[in-house]
Amino acid sequence: MILIFQILVILDSAIEAKVFPGAQVYISQHGNTLVSKGFGYHTYDKSRKVSPETVYDLASVTKVVSATPIVMKLINDKELSLNQPISDFFPGFYKSGKDSITISHLLLHESGLSAYHRYFLETK
Can you tell me the distance from the alpha carbon of 45 to that of 10, in angstroms, rounded to the nearest whole number? Predict the structure, then answer.
């Protein structure tokens, strides 16, 4: 329970320091809920409190949450290296002169690739 208390103190401190306006915590062990709590507010204007039932739009966070453990596992299994060029997986990058882009560049958003393409503007 000491670790849980430390987590809650860190969250309170971060909200107080305006690192983020609010958060949710859900901790369970062996199917038993230990903590289910909302902290702070949805936005800094403090118009809506965060509750355990608050729904967040995770949007691009999903990519980080899924990609990071996958890459870590592949590196641990020696199937991937952070310095490995992505042209090993996508030969088109080699042909287009982007062969120096590595897995590390992608994870750190340092690849020089454009953020996204607005495909929805091209639909009819």
Answer: 21
